[in-house]
Request: fold
Amino acid sequence: MNVTVCVKRVPDTETRVRIDGTGIETTGVKFIVSPYDEFAVEAALRTKEAAGDGAVSLLSLGDASTAESLRAGLAMGADSALLLTADVGLDGLATAKALANELQGSDDALILFGVKAADDDQQQVGPMVATLLNRPCVTGVASFEVQGDMAVCHREVEGGVEVIEVDLPAVLTITKGEYEPRYASLKGIMAAKRKPLEEKEATSVPERLRVDRLSEPPARAAGRIVGEGPDAVPELLRLLREEANAL
Amino acid sequence: MARFEGIDFYDLDSLFTEEERMIRDTVRAFVEDRVMPIIGEAYIERKFPKQLIPELGELGVYGANLPEKYGCAGLNNVSYGLIMQELERGDSGIRSFVSVQGALVMYPIFAFGSEEHRTEWLPKLATGEAIGCFGLTEPDYGSDPGGMITTAKQTSDGWLLNGGKMWITNGSMADVAIIWAQTRELGDVKGIRGFVVPTNTPGFSSRDQKGKLSLLASDTSEIVLQDVELPESAVMPESTGGLKHPLMCLTQARYGISWGAVGAAMACFHEALSYSKERLMFGAPIGGKQIQQVRLADMLTSITTGQLLTYRLGRMKDEGTMTPQQVSLAKRANADMATNVAREARRLLGANGILVEYNSMRHMANLESVYTYEGTHDIHSLILGQKLTGLSAF
Reply:
């Protein structure tokens, strides 16, 4: 069972983001594999282990520093990695096309994504790649199992679990469910150095989305004190009813 | 409190390789997820958290700088140091467990044992399936191990050990003990040899040392050796250097301690800094008060100095040029530094600082042991004094 996992390098989710014109200031920022993509890597490794054979390949689009994120995935246990070097912007379709161009010839039964990137939160690229490859796609998969020529996917929906059977080959986007990512072992980190990590330029896809400006959200205004003690209650109720529409 | 991100005021990160950083970050995440939630309770209950033993083995921290051939991770010494730093960020007891297993049990088996010793024990010790301890110190021979009264007498078909050891980390949990014993006249430091002793050998017994006020989440035991009969093969064939060979093990362990102490200090600083920004007194965060800012500046300075020492020490160890005296300097300086940082952090935390839900007082109490074991602060002063003057003060 061969699985490809597409991963994105993102700023650590605990980073205090500072804005720099149309992007964020990256000096001193630690970058990590997007946590949702780590779930997808974990899911891929378990799928391979359950099948008893096959390979897990990682694919990423990004600048040269993305190689570090791919090695983190190799250290977790993936078998090989390919980095498509490109300047990645916010245009999900451009990213999807560049990935799909590479994946066009892939006969891997599964292509996995994190349900979304932890930085831009767009949730676009997985389903777009599926569409471009003309493969079925299930999004927000909390767990799945391969049964013969299909994958049985569990999605967590309001008040229950939705079960979707999808024919392989398919594209799944993985959310936090059963796939708590494993720690890379220290031996795994050493072994990652010896695993193949190929780099090549991505096919050029023009971005059609332009960022004009990024700005901080306005600072929150200070709270308002309407009075003290029981005397303040009628005014508080009035405001909750008339201004906040909370009652 | 914000997630621990390390302290790196002088951008040492840019001097570590990507692999070294990845190793550190992996152990850091493990400590955050697996050690921090349970360590306070383990400490109060005076129990080493045994459930971590196989998990740490799976991670690969035991004897991590020994070769892959024996099931170890084959890391360089800087990576090994970073592992010690991150483990002690959690607790000195956890780091002690791993230090003893790696530097004091696996290292001597690797360096002085027979190939049979290595293949029998190293893979099991690397996974944590077997636990080891190191018996050098005796009740009356701590700083002066050469005076030991534990003896090994040659018999017709092997060895007979008698004596006792004290302050033995992992002593009650261990499956195998590296016991150092005098094979000649008492006081003849050239006669000291090392033995690989399975702890189920008749005559070997151990018991927990009661009444500790430090390293509570660690097994510290006394070992009694009463007519312990061992085969000829129990002696480590290469342990022919007398007292020098157990001291070589201590150099390995002290190297790790110099990194570990930095980790404990970083944990305390992290806690103190977070607290200073959140704790309000006189209507404002205490971090805005000059007295706390001086404290924090002093702590940061000490930690940064300690980090530079270990970084350079590690690179020298990897280049093969590190001397035992350089290790003494780093162990002495960093254990002292960490005890001071921990105490100042605890003070900054005010009354809350005596609670187990904060980490600084636990570290502060632990570090008194770290200051004292593996060559006390004072003994390391004498080692350096001898190096400087050529005159022995022992």
